[in-house]
Structure formats: C-alpha cells, structure tokens
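Quick illustration, no need to memorize.
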Amino acid sequence: MRAELLHTARAEARELLDRADQEAEALIAEARATARSLLEEAQRAGERDGAAAARDIRARARRTARARELTARGRAYEELRSRAVVRVRETWDTRARPDRPDLLDRLRQRAQQLLGPDAEVTEAPDGGLVAQLAGRRADYTLDALTARAVDRLGAEVETLWSA
C-alpha cells in the first residue's frame, strides 16, 4: 500500500510539475509577446517623435537661414545707401561744378511748391536744402535725396547682389 501511495504521489507530483512547466512556458511566451509588442510600439513612438523633432529642427533651420539672409540683404542695402551718399557728397563737394547753383535753385523751387512761397529755405551743411513752414518740413538734403533714390529702386536693387 505504501508503494502504491508513493507511486501515486510521484505520478501526481510529475503531473503537477508538467503542468507547472507548461504554465511557465505559456507565461514566458506571453511575456515575450508582450515585450515584443511593447518594443515595437516604443520603436514606432520613437520614430514618430524623431520625425516630429526632425521637422522642428528643419523648420528652425529654415527660419534661421531666412533671418540670416534678410540680415545680409539689409546690410548690403545699407552699404549701397552709404556708398551712394558718399559718392553724391563727393560729387557735390566739387565746388567748381557749373550746375550747382541751378541744382540748388531747382531744389528751392520744389520746396516752395511743396510748402508754399513763404517757406524758409536753408542750405544744408552736407549739401542740398531744408525748407520749413508752420511745422512742416521738406528735406532735400543730399542724404535724403540719395536715400529716396535708392529706395525707389525697390526690389530691383536686389539684382545687384543676387546671382
């Protein structure tokens, strides 16, 4: 009887161990499947996050490049204005120019047409004229005239430095 009980207990123990092994294998297989699924989802999330980060970086780079381009264009434009002013002043400073009085007369006439015949017109130290009347002012200095001439070039001025 003892042998029979021992044999039955061993059979039940083997059966329990087999079931435990099967359950353990099932749990391990389920854990592996869950881990694979989590890893794949993490990879997809990482790719999405990476793509979004790359888009942000590209957008920032485009904005930075555009800002630098506009800054460079602004500097080139200001350099053009400065050089034009210097060149006009050099030309104006040639005191022997026979047409200088005529130019001043034409500027004076324009100022008086704009502000009226009672406008106070004075010659500017750097060349040109300034006219004033009743709080209004007409600036026909060389600097102002040159700046307006360059401004009138508009977008066409960019052809000077773009290829």
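The first helix runs from residue 2 to 92.
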